Every structure is written in C-alpha cells, then in structure tokens.
Amino acid sequence: MNPQMDYIFSDEMLKLLGQFTSLTGVRIAFFSMSGEELCIGRNRSICGYCAMRRRERGFDNACLANDRQGREAALDREGAHFYQCHAGLCEAVMAVRVGETPIGYVMIGQFRLAGAAESIRNGHEAAAMGNMPVFEREKVDDLLGMFEVLIHYIANHALVGRRDFDLLHPLVERMRSSPEVALSLSEAARFIGLSASRLSHLFTSMMGVNFKRFQMQLRLETADRLMQSHPDWRMARIAEACGFEDPLYFSRAYKKHRGIPPSKREKGVKRKI
C-alpha cells in the first residue's frame, strides 16, 4: 500500500506548508514514521547542491543516515531538533504528535548558517550553494521558533491524521499508562480486536518501531525517570517498578539500548546497587 494512503492531510495544512516555504525560502516536508516523504510545501524539490551530490552513492547514504538520526533524536524532545548535515548545511525536524503518540515528522531544510564551514569542491557546487537561503544565528533561532509554533498548531488542530490511529490509540495509551505491566503481542491484539500479525504490521507502520521495541522503550524511559526522581532506590526496586522481574536482565537491557549500565546513568550521583 502507498504510505500516503494511510494519512489524511487537510487543505489547511497543505496551505500552511506552502506559506512557510514562500515566506522563508526553506523547503518543508512531512514524513511518515518510517521515513517516507509524503507531503511537501509548494512541492519544492531538494536544493540544487544536494541534487548534485546525492547522485554519489556514498554521499546519498550519508544523507539518509543523517535524516534517520535526526528523526530518532526528534522523538526524545518536545520541540524541534536542529542539526548540520555532513556537508555543513542546516536542517531541523520535529515529531507531529497526537497526545503523546508520534504519527509522523516534519522536516525543514536545507538552509545555510552564515559563517559555517561547508563542503564545496567546485564552481558548480558553489553556485548551487549560493541559491540557498542563508541566515545569521539569531535568525535561525527565530526560524526554529516559527517552525515549532507551526507544528504545534498542526497537531493541536488535527490538520493531519492517520486512518488507523483511532484503532491503535487505546492500546498505546494503555502501554504508556502502565509500562510495568507485561503485555504480549497476542494479548495486545485481543485488546483491540485484531490478529497478532495485523497488529504487528500496523504497529510498526504507525509507530516506526515494532511492538516489542516500543514496549522496551517505555520501560527504559520509566527507569530514567525513576533514577532521576529516586536516586536512593536500589536497582532491584527500579527494575521491578519498570516490569523487569530479573534485575540482571534489566541491567543488560538498559546497557544494550542506552550504551551504559543503569548504575552509571547519573554520573556523580551516589546510588545503592
């Protein structure tokens, strides 16, 4: 199925994306949770510089990896995630949420930051760079502020939606409210009246990660909050509060996904092990 068929874009949203590009000169696009570009303000194509460089396989792969990392970083914050790509160009991405549930992303870029180092190899690339919008640092802050207001408006006024969101939403809210409760894929499927295979496909399509990984993310986020708010708790107590029966499995899972053991998460804070 075409991923665009999963979404409903209002005329007002399409108009707002177009107005953003007209006012700023910056490309803006909506992406699905899995990274497909579905809706573009004024149907603006990518910049000439990127069009030239992305013909190179290695460069294109690096661009896609940058975008993927940017989307992942955006999930961890309420506002926009701003970054510079490997060519020195600027981009920002922000998750569009219904309640606490992300349903897609909006990305702006590329644009140039005045005075930043850029990768230019010849006159053609320099000319293409010269056609891109360029902003001083303080203007970039204003641009990002306007971008965040726009995305909040789109989300709060339900200007974009997912056709199956109402079906999945009760399950996601249950998982968020009780992350410590073990829930198998089969149990979750029965909860919303779907087959396990249908839920697995729908969940990955809408959430951008599979059911098991999403459940793990919620538990580890709970662990992060508890370690922050209760530095005197033993790890066994935190593990139990997050739904881990075995503290050793909790420690291994935390290190696998966070890169450090939970005992070292709060550097410099004394904690009972």
From TrEMBL:
One of the record's GO molecular function terms: sequence-specific DNA binding
Record-linked SMART domains: HTH_ARAC
Protein origin, superkingdom: Bacteria
Record keywords: DNA-binding, Transcription, Transcription regulation
Domain HTH araC/xylS-type: 169-268
PANTHER family: ARAC-FAMILY TRANSCRIPTIONAL REGULATOR, HTH-TYPE TRANSCRIPTIONAL REGULATOR EXSA
Protein name (record): HTH-type transcriptional activator Btr
Organism: Pontiella desulfatans
Source taxonomy: Bacteria, Pseudomonadati, Kiritimatiellota, Kiritimatiellia, Kiritimatiellales
